[in-house]
Amino acid sequence: MPIWNSKANNEEADAGAPLDVDHELPPSEDSQSTAVADPEVEKLRNERDQYLDRLARLQAEFDNFRKRNAREQQDYRDYAVADALKTFLPILDSLDRAAKTTSDTEQLRSGVELIDRQFHDALAKLGVQPIAAEGQPFDPNFHQAIQMEESADVPDNTVIGELQRGYKIKDRLLRPAMVRVARGK
Predict the structure, then answer these.
(1) φ and ψ at residue 60, rounded to 5 degrees
(2) Which of 145, 144, 137, 136 is closest to 173 using CA atoms?
(3) CA-atom Rg of the chain in angstroms
(4) Which residues contact 177 (CB under 8 A, 6 or more apart)?
(5) Chain-centre distance of CA 167, in angstroms?
(6) Strand partners, 181
(7) Which CATH code is given to the segment(s) 129-185?
(8) How far is it, in rounded angstroms, from Cα 181 to Cα 154?
(9) Domain spans in the chain, listed from the N-terminal domain onward
(10) Which of 96, 101, 116, 158 has the most CB within a 10 Å radius?
């Protein structure tokens, strides 16, 4: 049974004794709505806590994904060149053997031609193709004009000499060909 804090109860209580605060207050409209709202508020708090926990886990998972992705990209950059280098090692071996040889000029020439062929085959395996230049119309996307020469033998803006071969990897330019271009008289 509830005990209200009234003047009569205060007189009966010892003057130095503390009031008993565990007693229930009489029901009021506010306390009834709070009592009804408590399970609802508790439910909302639990739901909020679940969402916060889920958010924290997703943030941690995303952070781990980002770190793992950065590490994998760095590994890829570090070791991607390894496959390309493996295709050049036989060429290096051939160059070493050619440098050690004491044979005549014709054998040395055939050895260098073999090395040149090996090198071009290795580049082709990697998707690198030489750019056609000599006899082709000048294309500023693939050719770099170093010199213009007057010529009546070939049409205007035709490549008449290749000073340095150009290369492309798949469809992207790796290095333009350095060329001499014909100019009409």
Answers:
(1) -65, -40
(2) 144
(3) 44
(4) 131, 133, 142, 143, 144, 159, 162, 164, 165, 166
(5) 26
(6) 148, 159
(7) 2.30.22.10
(8) 10
(9) 129-185
(10) 158
Which tokens go with 97? 């053997």
Residue whose pair of structure tokens reads 């033998």 in the numeric block: 153
Per the listing, tokens 């004009």 go with 145
Q: How far apart are CA 111 and CA 30, in angstroms?
A: 101
- The secondary structure of the chain as a DSSP string is ------HHHHHHS-SSSPP---SPPPP-HHHHHHHHHHHHHHHHHHHHHHHHHHHHHHHHHHHHHHHHHHHHHHHHHHHHHHHHHHHHHHHHHHHHHHHH----HHHHHHHHHHHHHHHHHHHHHTTEEEPP-TTSBP-TTTEEEEEEEE-SSS-TTBEEEEEE--EEETTEEEEPEEEEEEE--
CA–CA separation, 25 and 29 (whole Å): 12
Distances 54 to 50, 57, 61, 63 between C-alpha atoms, Å: 6, 5, 10, 14
